[in-house]
Amino acid sequence: MEKLHVKVPAVEAGGYDILIGGGILTDSVIAEFVADRRVMLVSDENVERAGILDGIKVPSGCEKFIISPAGELSKNISTVTAVIEKMEAAAMGRDSVIVGIGGGTVGDMAGFAAAIYKRGIAVLHIPTTTVSQADSSIGGKTGVDSTMSKNAYGCFWQPRGVIIDVRTLKTLDERQYRSGLVESLKHALIRDAEYFEFLETNVANLLIRDEPTLIRLAAYNCRIKAAVVEQDPTEKNLRRILNYGHTIGHAVETLCDYTLYHGECVAIGIVAASMIEQRIGIGTRERTNRIVDVLLALSQPVRIPAQCSIDGIIDIIRRDKKSVGAVPRLALIEQIGKACCKDSQWAHPVSTDIVQEVIAELREVGLE
Amino acid sequence: MEKLHVKVPAVEAGGYDILIGGGILTDSVIAEFVADRRVMLVSDENVERAGILDGIKVPSGCEKFIISPAGELSKNISTVTAVIEKMEAAAMGRDSVIVGIGGGTVGDMAGFAAAIYKRGIAVLHIPTTTVSQADSSIGGKTGVDSTMSKNAYGCFWQPRGVIIDVRTLKTLDERQYRSGLVESLKHALIRDAEYFEFLETNVANLLIRDEPTLIRLAAYNCRIKAAVVEQDPTEKNLRRILNYGHTIGHAVETLCDYTLYHGECVAIGIVAASMIEQRIGIGTRERTNRIVDVLLALSQPVRIPAQCSIDGIIDIIRRDKKSVGAVPRLALIEQIGKACCKDSQWAHPVSTDIVQEVIAELREVGLE
Predict the structure, then answer these.
(1) DSSP H/E element including A14
(2) Is A127 in a helix, a strand, or coil?
(3) Active site residue B187
(4) C-alpha B145: how far from chain center
(5) Handedness of CA B113, B119, B122, B125 (dihedral sign)
(6) ipTM of the complex
(7) What are the tens digits of pLDDT across the range A272-321?
(8) In angstroms, rounded to a whole number, what is the distance separating the alpha carbons of residues B198 and B192?
(9) What is the pLDDT of residues B98-123, one digit of tens each?
(10) A115 and B CB contact within 8 Å
(11) Nearest Cβ partner for A84 among B13, B117, B153
(12) With a CB-CB cutoff of 8 Å, which residues 280-319 of chain B face chain A?
């Protein structure tokens, strides 16, 4: 038997810029980015209806794909296929650019289409929601759902740039706007105590969508998210702290059949994590209360809806990607602004009993 | 406007082994590779019918997906979706391995499924045809066709290993076996004069599928292919020499509606390239004749079928990925074993007139 070795060369470090401002989409930022390359603009009917697409400057002759219906229902391989076939029909080459304008699902699909069209082309993300501006547009996760699970298909595919125009947030309805701010709270909790204080003292400014406040918020979020994904781009370990509040949150999201928004479920998940921290001796009641106060000021739910059974939640958590041998593992914090790291691990095994107790308490008796 | 920069860290150099032998699939090589990880075996009905799957040792409890019908007809996104859904239904995690056993289309689909399942899992390639053992199993190109073009969807996704058992070649019918050897001739022409002489003197041994000869052939091919893809993994430049004979070959393949095999079309494309080299002063009639002799000994066509019109071929070549401003660009050689490099470029503009003349000569008058 002969044996040969094929070397796969190193890939050099790279990077991309995030531009943050208010009203910048009406300037020439997109045109400067795409230069003379052909553009496929991917967006959805919500963004179109909100008038965001009318207000922006796009290169003339750009192709356009409007996802309909907007949201998770369209986040599947058929939509990505349709985007790619439209690009093919327009004979777009490898030097084309996909510009994704919208929330997380638009970004995930635009990024995934870019990752697999002709073995990979450039993508520019223009997030327009509180969630996507804080979180999903940075870090290169792309993907679509299968009939069985979320993000079953996907790639890590880094964007060539991200443009955050906080003015687009004014188009969101109150519930979508507020629930998306929970991802910002999450960032503060895992990485930055000063940011948490900024949130505590600026809730009123956030609620009126004050532009300077939103620009500062975006800058905080991007700095934190960037620092985390730079250290662990493919989620081997550290990046798991971004899952703070998401393990139990995802379970609630599934069990309530998506009647609660993602951010609302994460709010509940953060409270649950905080109570678990108390029980294993790394949290305090005062800390939980401080967090709950911010969530309530943002009109977020902090209790598990009755329709979510304890067993149902436990079952889903056990099948979570982070679980090892059916023992739940959660991202946790040891103080506000500091995620917990033990034996170089950022996701921590928690006994099913403790998780069960906390769920029971949050669900039935409520929080005292 | 605020501007932040996100660093994308470098990816370290890596690599993978290629094992080459006769009858090695019956040993424990696959089991050693996959260790205790779960396996999805992807193959097609031709491979199954040939009995290759019966003869190999696979880990117990491995899942199996048999592509039907075999070949290009099934090379689409629906097949990849079906593979992924089967993995999901079996609750296979990120540490699973896809093992692709078959020709180029199986490898392309197995590799693509691995690239996009849960943002990327391991793939082991076990090529079973002359083409895939020489060429497509090495280098990380994966993808599927759209209704409009070949490999419209895809990723670069490096395998974790390649196992080449030349005994599987004994299951191929004569035409498939021989036409696949054209990729070996191509490797010799672009990189290795000694290898070309080996082919000239070993045609008889190749035709009887002598195992030691096939093992030497595989080793030559893998060394050449590995050397090229190591220098240019994502086909920015050098890797284009692997397209030798393919530009005109692909056009013929399309215009004859795939009634000729890929290798047969590449044979014609190689002869055309050789005649173009004569006309632009970097080839000789003697060299073309030497190449044609090997092709004829392998029963390969060396003339363009009458059904392919000159205009049709020119039109397709102009839309080739390598074309710039509708001027055809071809990989060429300056001597046997040495691809042509000019101004650091490995694909060369050739005037449409010359291409037209050569096509006319090859098509109507034949080769003198």
Answers:
(1) strand A14-21
(2) strand
(3) no
(4) 15
(5) positive
(6) 0.90
(7) 999 999 999 999 999 999 999 999 999 999 999 999 999 999 988 887 76
(8) 10
(9) 999 999 999 999 999 999 999 999 99
(10) yes
(11) B153
(12) 319
